[in-house]
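**Tokenised fold:**
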Amino acid sequence: MSAPPAVTRLGVLLVAFAAFAVGAAVPTASARVTTEVTPEVPHTTVLDGAQLHRTKLRVDRGDPQLRPAVEALTARADRWLNQGPWTVVDKPRPAPGGDVHDYLSQAPYWWPSKPPTADNTWGCPYVQRDGERNPEVDTGTDRQDVEKTFDAAYDLSLAWYFTGRKRYAEKAGQVLRTWFLDPATRMNPNLNHAQFIPCKYDGRAIGIIDFSQSFTSVLDALALLDTGAPGWTGKDRAGLATWNSDFLGWLRNSDFGKEEAAATNNHGTFYDMQLAALAHATGDRNLARRTVLNVRSTRIAPQIASDGSQPQELARTRSWHYSTFDLVAHTRLAAIGRHVGVNLWAYRGPDGQSLFKAVDYLLPAATGSAAWPHQELGFLRYAADDVVYAAADAGDVRARRAVPLLEDPPGGDLWALRPAAEQLDSIAG
């Protein structure tokens, strides 16, 4: 009989803390004398490469505490093997600019106000219904395909790193080359037509969040493959490095990028997360460090109240989703900060604002001990799991006590293998 979820979670957490405690005593790859062939320490951007390497060694030794997570990860990776690859060029009509290589998505919460006619095929004008997803946004655009591309690349790269199974690396390479590199199918490195609104806008700055919420996982996937994945070549690495540099330039210098940088809610947090991650991945450590440092005064202090609530996110019809969503960006920024010498978890704002307080505000609802007291169109308790784990790993005692009470997300708990917060309740599904 399997252990109850609470016991399993507690065991995983205790093992993880033990690994951290002895991490300094683990010899480096260069100092270790062994005949085993183990991938080198990956130069990841959000994930901690040294920690991944230690976990990989434990997996290789058959650590039973990690077996459930490895099985869950490989099950996810197996499902991707017969899917894709995906490309921006196969949508039924190109983006408004006419280039089939431009990414296109549609604003999810905007709906036609009139029945379509021959003279008004879209049913314009469109009107906003916050939190109510228009199903037409998932047909005729690239929105779902880009999520599949990013998720597949990440799951497959992680599965290869921890198991060494060649098929996972080869599929990850195919997915990435098709979306980013192949001249016939590649995406242009811009988001000029993200979250367009029919008959209103050909694209909007807030569409940048289409990439912000999960593209940083692709950066870590690339770092994993770069440790020696079969079929992943120097040409592939160079091509993705160029794509990322070009995209970073667009993100910093375009009007849409500048507008998104000025956003004061989760859009601004995710913009900073993506900017810092791309800067780190492309070698601009100074930009990455400056971006993370600025987050203290430009994001944490104004976005988080003294009680830990996030007022702008609580005002939404999906307040639970957006409260956890914003903290995914904050905690991933804290993870990036670790690579550039900035401890965001230690920051306290002028009124006591902190990431710890923001996570603690979620704990009653995350553990099921109290109802979420704000409006939420579709409450999913597990949406907070990863941010609670992140706070626990960073030293939050309340979060540590909450971990055994969390609800497992669909597909299993993967924190032990990829300890960085993800958006667990996708709004695209």
Notes: The chain is about 50% helix and 0% strand. Residues 143-163 form the longest helix (21 residues).
